[in-house]
Structure formats: structure tokens, C-alpha cells
Amino acid sequence: MPFSRSRFLSLVAALSAAGSSAAPAAAAVPPWYPLPPPIKPSRRALVLSGGGARGAYEAGVLARLYENVETDGPPFDIVCGTSAGAINAAFAARSTRASIDEARKFWLEIPDAHIVDLIDPVQHAMLAADAFRQSTQHGFPRKLKYLARANGELGAMGPLSDLKDTLGVVSEQPILDLVHKYPMSLDELRATLVITATNVTVLGSDAFYRFVGPTAVADEARFVDLGQKFKTAEQQILRGVHARRVPLREETFIPAVIASTAIPGAFAPVSISDAAGNVSVYVDGGVANNTPVGLATDAGATDITVVFVDAPEEFEPPQPVNMLELMANCYNLMHQKIVEADLELVLAQNLMTQYREYRGLSSLAQRYLNTLGKEAWHPLTLRLIHPRAALPVDVMGFNDPAGLKKAFEAGFADAAEPQIYTT
Q: CA 108, CA 104: separation in Å to the nearest integer?
């Protein structure tokens, strides 16, 4: 990550210069001075990013990280997940040998679930198009056979208005059946769970959460309070917004997991009601927050393990040659910028624990630092786990059993050597 002490200080200096038209505060000290004591004891969080079929890699990481869970207890106090990572987070937060083994089974058996089956109208439309194509390759009377087949598929497709109003071309039933194959209950959680989903009703990233453990009440109160701090336009621009923080209920647990995986255009959005009965529509959590590092810090984490599913060289994709590749590049760029912002805030926090006195800060610089919203500063440790080389399965490789198995094995191997950053 291209972030350093000098870069952070340059940012503060730039903000100070931007406010130079106003009289700077004399002998200003930073708004966090004096520093409050660190939060103790250290709390560990696991952050699982989205990545479609590459969730198999994360399942391999879990198998390594939770290898001794039965003898040593849960290795993480907090588990955060988005999209495919939300599925893995739901398994990991239960923190048992059985739940981690279920994550492995889920991903290695996913080809048998046929979760990329097209809905009937789309399937019939594609078959009709193929029949028309074949009809152009033959003369009469053989051509008539293919035209008749195309006509039959068009009839089975139904009204064009139904196809036009479709919100997802892939059937949601297979993924629902697969998830329900592994019953999950909030009462089983042994670690705090945070799942993100993109709320297209209010246009933001919602965080569904359940806090557990002896300090759950205080942790939840702080987490909710931090989510409510950023209300002004200035705070939203400088800090970014997680639209809402929504407590998980038993009836919304699985819908929240499914919503986090609902790739726009592929799967239909998922509607979820809050405790007051207000309904919001959700799509893939990765649209707005694919790697929720900031949520882990807000939940109280001081030692954060982040799992990515892309190798470093994949952050520089080749020049797009078609519309799908162009969309994928734009999507990846959006994800990269979001996670860069979160990681920079984490590293900036570490710098602020070491520097207590800044002189001559402008009011704008002070307002910027206030938008970080922290009342207790403590140094953070980041542990990054990612593929050493490009995985042999792509994001939509749900029907590739060999690729999924190799991705799982790569995750198990890579988790043994995380990259660790403390400043």
C-alpha cells in the first residue's frame, strides 16, 4: 500500500494550506491531544472480501487459521465479510471445527448446485436466438425445422415485458438451497459478525451486525455511535458513509448473507425489513464496500487480518477488449479505491498515536481529523493474506471443480505466511 508517514503529514499540511485564508489557530494542538489510553486487551478481527467463486480460496484460509480452534478457542473476536466473504464469515463466526469444515464442503460442492442456472425466460430467449442462428445455415425445407424450434422457444419465453422487467438473469433458488443446506443460527455465534450489503433504496452500504462476548453491549453501543457520527456533508465526503448499521435478527440472518452475494444484473435484489417494518432492497455488498476494514476498527479491532482473493499482478489488468472486461476493470478499480481509503485510515491512526503535537493547524485540518470520529486511539496491526499468484479459477468459475479445489489449497498454503504491518 503506497502510504507513509510523509504522505500523511503532507495531507495534513495540504489541508492546513487550504484553510490559510482564515487566521490559523495560535499554537494549535491536534483535536486528539492528549491521547486517551489504548483500548485493552487487544482484539483480533478477520475481514473477508468478496470475489465470487474465489471464495473457495478464503475457505482454504479459514481451514488454516482455525486449524486449532477446538483446543485454542476462536482465533478472532470479530469476523467481517462481504459477498462471497459474507458466506465464509457466517461459517467462521461460529468458530467450530464443524463450521469450518462446512465452509470447505460448501465451496467444493458448489459445482453440483448449478447456481448459475438462467431463469426460464432468459434461457428460452437464448435457445430461440440459437435456433434462429442455425436456421441461417440451412436452406429449405430444413430451415423450417429451426424456425419452428425458435418460434416454440419464443412462445415459452412469455411476454417481452416480463423479460424487460427482470432484475436478475440467474435463478436465485439454487444458491438459496445450497445455503439452507447448512443451517445457521445467531445463537451459535462465538465471534461478533458484521456483514455488508449495498442498500439501493437509500444508496449506501449497510452493515448487518451481531455482537457477542462479555463486552458485547458496550462494543455494540460504540459501533452504532460511530456509525451515527458522520451526518454532515463534509464528514461524508472526507470520511465516507456506511449508510446504516442494522442489528441482525434470526429472520434476517440468511437473507442478509444472500443479499450480500446478489451480484447486480445476475441475481435479483433481496428485500429485507428492519425491526420497524421498513423495507429496503439490497444487492452485492461489494458494490459499495468490498473489504470492510473500517467496520472492523469501528467494532473495536486492534489486530486485523484481511483476506484478498486477487494476486498483486491482478491489480493491473490488461487493456479491456470487450464490454464485459471494461465493466470488470471499472468494478475492480472501485473496489481498490475503497479498500485503499480504509487501509490509509488504519495506517493514519497508527501515525497519530506517535505524534502528539502539531502547531499551526488550520480549522479545516482540525475538522478533517475530527471526522475520523475516534475517541480512543490505539495502534493497529494489519495482517494481509492474498494469493501469491493468480488463482486458477475466475470470479464466475462456480462450475469449475478443479479450479475451486486448487484455490482452496492455495488459501490453506498462503494463510501460513501473512504480511504483517504495524506502522
A: 6
Q: How far is CA 215 from CA 45, 46, 300, in A?
A: 15, 18, 10
Strands 279-283 and 381-385: unpaired
Q: Which of 354, 237, 360, 380 is nearest to 298 (CA)?
A: 380
Cα 289 to chain centroid, rounded: 5
The count of residues in the chain is: 423
Closest CA to 255 of 197, 210, 213: 197
pLDDT tens per residue, range 31-61 = 445 444 455 567 899 999 988 899 999 999 9
Helices and strands in the chain, H and E counts: 17, 10
And the C-alpha cell for 208? 448487518
Q: What is the mean pLDDT of residues 277-291?
A: 84
Provide the pLDDT confidence category of residue 407 given band limits of 50, 70 and 90: very high
CA distances to 8, 255, 376 from 11, rounded to whole Å, are 5, 41, 22
Residue type, 214: P
Cβ neighbours, 10 Å, residue 305 = 24
